[in-house]
């Protein structure tokens, strides 16, 4: 079932910001090097104001996926996100690697991030994005138990919202078996629509791709979604410490000019998009 978008809208566009700051280097990459932490600091001190200014210029409301480590380390920037009318979703505690956690620890961290969201933001998060976009065998169950509305971590579709099904039995010889669709609505992501792996200089690989190449990829994918996926959702994931670099921000603004030039495009936070789903 496709989304039922507002009148005269043909494609929902989610621009989301994963505001990881220090946590991605400490959690996913396991580094406390001052050099790596300074890249996270750039994201907070330089990238966030630049990105918020860009969103104000285009009149776009977005979703920010923020680890609670960032909420505590850079509270002023998080308050600025809220003051501009953007949504804040859950994104782990310290950008932990979900697949390396024991079930009890994953549950503890899920409970902790909800508690910290309530403390710093004043309410529970409606949505969740896994750090590094990965799930354990129990993540989906936890999201259902703690009554999240949506997730945006999986890749079972490209431009369509869907209800993910857990793989309840795996067999290399007999095939895999799916369980029932989840109560969680998935707003899918894609590594092709993420600035971080393509544009960053990462410890495990060197990205730093040409902005012309990345812009062409994003534009091609948007054009496909716009022309071929009615009532679909196009989800672009940004990181302030990446997209906030001057040449990257210019590329983003060229892309937004292209998208905004199409009629029937609906820029919206993920929770508003998820509310358009009808079973």
TrEMBL record:
The keyword Hydrolase applies. PROSITE patterns: NODB. Keywords: Hydrolase. InterPro entries: Glyco_hydro/deAcase_b/a-brl, NODB_dom, PgdA-like. Residues 34-279 form the NodB homology domain. GO terms for molecular function: hydrolase activity. The keyword S-adenosyl-L-methionine does not apply. It comes from the Bacteria. Its EC number is 3.5.1.104. It is an enzyme of class 3 (hydrolase). This is Peptidoglycan/xylan/chitin deacetylase (PgdA/CDA1 family).
